[in-house]
Amino acid sequence: MTGYRVAARRATTRSKLIALAAGAAVLATGGIVTSLAAWTDTEYVHGGTAPGTGGVSASVFEVEQNVTGAADGSGWTNDLASPGGLVDFGEIAQQLSPDTTVTGFVRLRTVVDSLAGHLSLVSDTAAATVADEDSLAHVLGYRAWVESDAFAAGFVCDEAPDAGDTVLVGSAAAFASLDTAGSATFDLAAGTDDDPGAERTVCFALTMPAGTSDDYQTAPSFDPIWHFAAQSFVAP
User: Fold this and answer.
1) What b/e sequence results for 209-219 when a residue is b if at least 16 CB atoms lie within 10 Å of its CB, and e otherwise?
2) Which H or E run contains 119?
3) CA max distance for the chain
4) 3-state DSSP assignment of residue 225
5) What is the pLDDT, as a whole number, of residue 35?
6) Which of 53, 192, 223, 232 sits at 20 to 30 Å (Cα–Cα) from 126?
7) How far apart are CA 223 and CA 178, in angstroms?
8) In angstroms, what is the C-alpha Rg of the chain?
9) What is the DSSP letter of 211?
10) pTM, rounded to two decimals
11) What's the burial of 124, exposed, middle or buried (CB within 10 Å: 0-12/13-18/19+)?
12) Cβ atoms within 10 Å, residue 61
C-alpha cells in the first residue's frame, strides 16, 4: 500500500505543477498586459505661418492712380468705375484744330503690401463710335506709352515716345484709332510692408490730323475712355 500512496502523491504533485505552469502561461501571454492601465497622449498641430504672424490669409493686389503733377505723395486714388480719373489734355483739347496734338498722363503704382502686377491698356471708346463718320472720334487718333524715366515735379509728356519707352499703342511715327487696345504689357512693382510700389507714368498723345474736314468743326464733344486691366503675380 505504501508504494501506491507514494505514486498517488507524485501524480497529484505533477498535476498541480502542470496546472501552475498553465496558469503562468496565461499570464505571460496576455493576462498581465490586459490587467494594466494604458498611458495616453494627444498632440495637436495647426496650419499657419511663422509663430506670431497670424493664420492663413489672402494676399492683396491693388493698383492706384494719380493724374496730378503733385510730387509730395498726394493725389493718389482708386477709380474702379468708368469714366475714372481725368487725363488732362489741357485747354487746347477743347478747341482742337487740324495738325494739333495734345498730351496728358496718368501715374500708376501698387498700394502698400500689394503684389506686383502685369498691366495692359484697353480702349473703351466703342468701335461703333469711331466708325460713325459724324463723330469727332472718327478722325482723332492717339498713341500711348510708358515713360522710362521716373516721374518728377513739372513733368510733361512729349508728343511721341523716346527710345527706351514702352510703346503701348501706335508708334513714334504713327497714331492709332481711338478704339485700339494696347499691344504690349508693362509691370508694376510690388508694394512693401511700409511703402507702395514704384510708380510708372503712362503718357497719352491725342491728335487731330492735318487735312481734317471742316465738317468736324460742329461735331459734338466726347470723352475718350480707357482702362488698365491688371493681373497680379508673385515677384521672384
Assistant:
1) eeebeeebeeb
2) strand 116-123
3) 153
4) coil
5) 61
6) 232
7) 11
8) 41
9) T
10) 0.81
11) middle
12) 19
Domain residues of the chain, as ranges?
A: 1-43, 63-233
Amino acid found at 8: A
- 10 Å CB burial of residue 93 (0-12, 13-18, 19+) is middle
Q: Any idea how long the chain is?
A: 236
Compute the Cα dihedral for 14, 15, 21, 25 and give only its sign.
Answer: positive
Q: What is the pLDDT of residues 165-184, one digit of tens each?
A: 999 999 999 999 999 999 99
Q: What is the mean pLDDT of residues 126-154?
A: 95
CA 197 – CA 40 distance, rounded (Å): 53
* Closest listed residue to residue 143, CA positions, set 187, 96, 183: 183
Beta bridge pairs of residue 123? 226
The C-alpha cell that represents 182 in the structure block? 494696347
Q: Which residue bears the cell 498730351?
A: 103
| 125 exposure class (CB count in 10 Å sphere: 0-12, 13-18, 19+) | buried
Backbone dihedral angles phi then psi of residue 109, each to the nearest 5 degrees:
-160, 165
Q: Which set of grid coordinates corresponds to residue 131?
A: 466708325
Asked if 139 and 209 touch (Cβ cutoff 8 Å), the reply is: yes
